[in-house]
Write a structure and sequence with these properties.
The chain is an alpha/beta fold and 222 residues long. Helix content is 27%, strand content 35%. The strands form 4 sheets. Strands 2-1-3-4-5 form a 5-stranded parallel sheet, sandwiched between helices. Strand 4 (73-78), helix 4 and strand 5 (94-97) form a beta-alpha-beta unit.
Length: 222
């Protein structure tokens, strides 16, 4: 799940960041020190959960949450217990009172809504050039990573988004997509042939990394 930390205290952000790093299913997208920074991130990124402080300068955490028409899941992280009732009235997942332990943090994370395992996504929602696109996975040929950006190559178009291949791989159906290189994820059905240490996909020759070769060939040759 893609996470956003919003807290005006650097030490508080650092604690939550370290806790997130300990949980494999969480990926930190960004950290913000106020609500306005958070709004900019939310307009540009896909975020699944907010770790949100309440008492911040300018717009409070509660004010930010009320301003979002379709907010992601929210876990409040605050030093003030007096907002608990109002927080839960806003249907937040949990309310963490500072200072909180990693064990308490993990309990909150385990309450986050999860997609049923039997449901596999048919499309991918991503942001590119200030727009939000829904891309059908049957149209995707391969994903190509360059630094902090990923280009999605489809049959007719290309989209570049701020993301990581590791995060994308977690959102893709395993039976349909395979990692072949540190910079490439390929749709198995789009592979024309394998030759040496390369695969041919729609005329593009993509490298097979040593780390991924055995797993890839086992899946391709099934």
């Amino acid at each position: 799940m893609r996470c956003l930390i919003i807290d005006d205290e650097p030490v508080a952000r650092e604690i939550v960041r370290k806790y997130i790093d300990k949980i494999p299913q969480l990926e930190l997208v960004a950290e913000c020190e106020d609500a306005m920074q958070a709004l900019n991130i939310l307009q540009a990124e896909v975020v699944d959960v907010l770790f949100l402080d309440i008492n911040m300068p300018g717009i409070s955490g509660i004010g930010l949450l009320k301003s979002l028409p379709k907010p992601p899941a929210v876990i409040f992280t605050t030093a003030y217990s007096k907002y608990a009732v109002e927080g839960f009235e806003l249907n937040v997942t949990d309310y963490l009172l500072k200072p909180f332990s990693f064990e308490r943090f993990l309990m909150a994370v385990n309450k986050l809504p999860k997609r049923p395992d039997e449901e596999e996504p048919e499309s991918l929602v991503l942001k590119s050039d200030g727009r939000t696109f829904r891309i059908m996975l049957t149209e995707v040929l391969y994903f190509e990573s360059s630094g902090d950006y990923v280009t999605i190559h489809t049959k007719n178009e290309r989209f570049t988004t701020y993301d990581r291949l590791k995060s994308l791989m977690e959102r893709l159906p395993e039976k349909d997509f395979v990692r072949i290189h540190k910079s490439y994820i390929v749709a198995l059905r789009s592979i024309h042939f394998v030759e040496g240490n390369q695969v041919s996909v729609n005329g593009a020759e993509l490298p097979i990394g040593k780390t991924y070769r055995e797993d890839f060939l086992n899946r391709f040759e099934r």
